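Below is how a single chain appears once it has passed through the pipeline. First comes the sequence as given, then the structure the pipeline wrote out for it. We keep one example in the README because the format questions we get most often are answered faster by looking than by reading.
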Amino acid sequence: MQEISIYLPGILLAYSAFLLAIASPGPNILAVIGTSMSVGRSSGMALAMGVASGSFTWAILTVFGLSAILSTYASALLAIKVFGGLYLLWLAYKSFKSAASTHDIEARELAGGRRTPYGYFKRGYIIQMTNPKAALAWIAIISLGLKEGAPLWVGAVIVLGTFMLSVAIHLMYAVAFSTPAMVRLYGNSRRVIQGVLGTFFAFAGLKLLASRA
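Resulting structure:
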């Protein structure tokens, strides 16, 4: 029980960072929204599952990669945390910049014509796996939850937990944004949402830079 209490705050912080990261629509989310609006809810859900599966793959690769590095070079944890903290501060800057902008989100149908459900799933997976920002984001997220000498179960809890959150949130986007009214509602709240995201990312980034363990 004492071991769980040591790692639980970091795990919850990693979950929070992940949730807020996907609350701000990027190329993957916009693809899900655009597909749901233009093609249909089922196609959007298939694309969403592909994106979530890609996110799961990035999470596994990041956990094993960072764990291998830390097991060999314990001092690398400091460099990883500095990198992760700086990336979170960059996300804060982007969120504040978006909050100050009057430009709304643009959700469009994917190029290349209509696809089968499997085709949309595959396209979603490719979108997520070929997004370089996904790798950077996962390094920041995992570094929030991993401490030096953390047991394997900590990484497993982060990976499985974020995967379930990813499936739930991406499917929610596909269902909710299958109507133009939801896009308008989000557009009206976008600046407030981005301001909240920027505040959290700034807090998480500074916390990561200030931590030493």
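The mean pLDDT is 77.

See the next section for the split statistics.
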